[in-house]
């Protein structure tokens, strides 16, 4: 091969080497941004999933907080209502409270909780006046002749708020204990009747007359001197 041909061949080989280097650099220049793009895309998707998860957790915590706030408000309202009822009872009916008698063990806890803090003594008795009414829900208050209107209204209100609806309030017919309130199921009470509303209870007043007041045993009749 002549010197000119060798020189041309050397130039061609050098050109091909430079061209291969340029191609490699071109691929590297392309792959690096592509790799960065893929990495950023994967990172973006991962962060988006984390954000969605955090957003879901936040919404769940927010809902739970709202539920707890609602429960707290309801409990505060219940405490306010109970304290109001206690104040009304103390102011309106000073003295001995009538006894409240029930005959259903299943509701004993609810009745005692509703009335105990108001100063009423709740007594559970096993005697059932009419076995045919054993499956009929309690919905009637019967009262003795010495029970005041204020006590009857207070007991009826407290029981109604304890989800024990009162459909009828009437004077006791069998148990004549004058200072007794009974929560019973009565055959005279329509189970389909609408329970007494709070307004109806707050304005309720007995139709019968209270018991005549008996003079205390220590009272004596003073007679004048004999003429």
Describe this structure in words.
Helix 1 packs antiparallel against helix 3 and helix 2 crosses helix 3. The chain folds into two domains: 92 residues; 106 residues. It has 227 residues and is an alpha/beta fold. Strand 3, helix 3 and strand 4 form a beta-alpha-beta unit. The protein has four helices and five strands. The longest helix is centred in the first third of the chain and has 90 residues. The N and C termini lie far apart (180 Å).
List keywords for this structure.
disordered C terminus, five-stranded mixed sheet, rod-shaped, alpha/beta, 227 residues, 4 helices
Q: Helix/strand/pairing class, anyone?
A: alpha/beta
| Number of helical elements | 4
Biggest sheet: strand arrangement: 2-1-5-3-4
Helix-strand pattern, N to C?
HEHEEHEEH
Q: Write down the domain tally.
A: 2
N-to-C terminal Cα separation, in Å? 180 Å
Shape: rod-shaped
- Gyration radius from CA atoms, angstroms: 44 Å
Beta-strand content estimate: 5-15%
Characterize the largest beta sheet: strand count, sense, and whether it forms a barrel: 5 strands, mixed
Outline the low-pLDDT stretches: 218-227
- In which range does the helix fraction lie? 40-55%
Number of strands: 5
Q: State mean pLDDT (0 to 100 scale).
A: 81
SSE topology sketch:
Elements: H1 3-92, E1 99-102, H2 108-116, E2 122-124, E3 140-143, H3 149-161, E4 168-171, E5 180-184, H4 198-202
Parallel strand pairs: 1-2, 1-5, 3-4
Antiparallel strand pairs: 3-5
Characterize this entry briefly.
With 227 residues, the chain is α/β, with parallel strands linked by helices. It has helices spanning 3-92, 108-116, 149-161, 198-202; strands spanning 99-102, 122-124, 140-143, 168-171, 180-184.
